[in-house]
Specification:
homodimer, 12 helices, alpha+beta, 9-stranded antiparallel β-sheet, 26% strand, 386 residues, 17 strands
């Protein structure tokens, strides 16, 4: 029973920690031996997921393949499956995480709540003045494929800017996805896990704080009303069934004055679910492995009333690991997770989870440890007194 | 910040899981690439701890060395330290885990409660008839060095049997340690962790169930009275300070009608402390790493009222990993830990932890998962209804 993971990033690294615990063998396809997961895995293949032979080597070295990221070639994956190598999630689901235009089209046809959108593939055009007039400037323009962590998402203020950014996407052969810019009251994420046989479980819905498109903090349950959380969970469960995902799926949503809308999907463990490592009966990484191996799913219940998860980023001055840990481990409640990356300004290096029965304590403790590890405190994060 | 671990067993494997989480690099000196820890570590040296050059390679590949087991050469370790390579625990502490005769002598001089004992090195003798008369047959005879998991411990029924077993030890150059056989009311273990600067923490004392010298089950708090647990903890804290251990130390004790006596010491994470992975704020593996790296120790508080930890052993028929996991993961409360070993009758393959607020539930759930993984239910374990 051996799991192959495409990609050597932190998600792979955290899957490996759980695989080790469960006695499951692993092999990672990493782009570099310096990748976070490559540094903690006994068997590492160096290669790119767009390289057929690298993917074939991975397939022949394991029983089932899963993913650390979605920057993969669906055709290669489809061919591996056709040749008898299981890959989860399958391309029929993965397409909705890989391609935002496909996701918008299919989920809107399924009646799921979405912002208005317009898909503009290379070689085609749209009346931008008319679009701006109809939805109101600025608009959101996304690269349908290839973006992550805020990359590939542009706020365009007028028709000229829109045309120029769209032109750049088209020049790279990438489809443009225009969306109306909704007034966001809160950002949420709903995390579910689904097994090939359809067994499905949802973790409690979380509130996320994003700065410049990058997740900085996850609060469970945050300030979300039970009614909103229930709706978000229902949407995620419906999406998971609709696309028949296998493994963990995160649905990122916006709460607006008109209700919830789906923002994005991720079909793998997700930053908004890192809190589950220390705040839920079963972590997203363990349940992802269970799902892709078609094993019974673990309970997704919270193990405390409140959990805060704060991402660790490199600041303008790199802090040595030892110095950072000396400070962070002095916060008694903090569970520190680091990804084995060298510090660099703005680079995501890890996260800190704190679970407890006092909502402001868990948040304060998590930020205290994260800042000890060198994370700059963003102005946008309010209400935390260190 | 890189930790080198001598030995590739399950204790090393579980240290690696925590090291990965904390972003700490690791290198393992394993005897075989098939060792449990070698299968999950990116950097593995193959060699024996009694081989000076293997130990020197390990030292030059890391910043600090620690141990998976105590079957090591204290002279080699002493020389590494003298050459400037930190090793924790240091030989001045380790000797009491490596050599039971040294442990008995030093701890009894320190006034710690012990069974009566008599040390008989090769080349010397003792009046066995007189010893048996004084303490009453049978006696316990231990190999002063080299034993583990019940190996190297003999119950000798009369002077002839005692002489013959002692002769075998002496023929191997091993000192014999005779001990009176005490009437055991309960077996306990007290687990502590100590940092180079003297910071020390104790986890709650546990009750263990041993069958033929092998630990089968750990219950926290078990049936121990608060008074007994307090005394056991005080003994462990005193021993740790007395020998200035760095890292985790387990003191195994017997409760007798006359009070507690020290049975053995282990200076590394210990089977009686595996419950801390899922039942305490900080696991013994994380705190062991923190201690040997001289980082602040984490809280040792329980995270639930009751914890049961049951060891997984191979039965007469090997169960495939997948089949075992299908059953064990179906027990919702169970946290399954497997060591990546092939199943063989009587081989320790893993353990299952269950934490909760109902003492009989946690025990039943842990045994349910352990038996699903193929563990035979020993007749000596009472009061569990599967």
């Amino acid at each position: 029973m051996k799991v192959g993971i495409v990609g050597g990033g932190q998600l792979a690294r955290m899957m490996l920690e759980e695989a080790s615990r469960l006695g499951i063998d692993t092999v990672v396809l990493a782009e570099s031996p310096e990748d976070g997961a490559a540094k903690v895995c006994a068997e590492v293949l160096i290669g790119h997921p767009a390289d057929r032979s690298a993917m074939a080597s991975l397939a022949s070295a394991c029983d089932v393949i899963t993913l650390d990221h979605e920057l993969v070639d669906l055709e290669i994956i489809g061919d591996l499956i056709a040749a008898g190598h299981p890959v989860w999630p399958a391309p029929s689901a993965l397409i909705y995480a890989v391609d935002k235009a496909e996701m918008r089209t299919t989920l809107s046809e399924a009646g799921l709540p979405m912002p208005r959108f317009e898909i503009v593939p290379p070689g085609s055009s749209v009346d931008l003045d008319e679009l701006g007039q109809r939805w109101g400037w600025p608009l959101v323009l996304k690269a349908a494929r290839g973006g992550y962590d805020g990359k590939g998402v542009f706020i365009v203020g007028d028709a000229d800017e829109a045309a120029s950014t769209l032109g750049e996407l088209h020049a790279q052969g990438v489809t443009g996805l225009f969306e109306e810019r909704v007034e966001i009251e809160a950002e949420l994420a709903a995390l579910v896990v689904r097994r090939p046989n359809g067994e499905i479980k949802a973790w409690p819905v979380v509130e996320t704080a994003q700065v410049a498109g990058v997740c900085r903090e996850v609060l469970v349950p945050g300030d979300l009303s039970a009614a909103i959380a229930e709706k978000a969970e229902a949407i995620a469960l419906r999406v998971a069934d609709e696309v028949a995902v296998v493994g963990v799926m995160a649905v990122e949503l916006f709460a607006t004055a008109d209700g919830l809308v789906v923002n994005e999907l991720a079909m793998r463990p997700h930053n908004s679910g890192h809190w589950t490592q220390d705040g839920a009966s079963t972590s997203q990484f363990e349940n992802h492995l269970r799902a892709v191996l078609d094993l019974p799913l673990g309970s997704t219940e919270m193990s405390a009333r409140f959990v805060a998860s704060v991402n660790v980023f490199g600041g303008s001055e790199a802090i040595a690991l030892e110095e950072g840990l000396l400070g962070a481990l002095d916060v008694p409640e903090a569970k520190v997770h680091l990804y084995g990356k060298a510090s660099r300004e703005g680079r995501k290096l890890g996260h800190v989870n704190v679970a407890g029965n006092d909502g402001s304590m868990v948040r304060r403790a998590a930020w205290k440890a994260a800042t000890a590890l060198g994370t700059p405190m963003p102005d946008e994060i309010r209400g935390v007194e260190l």
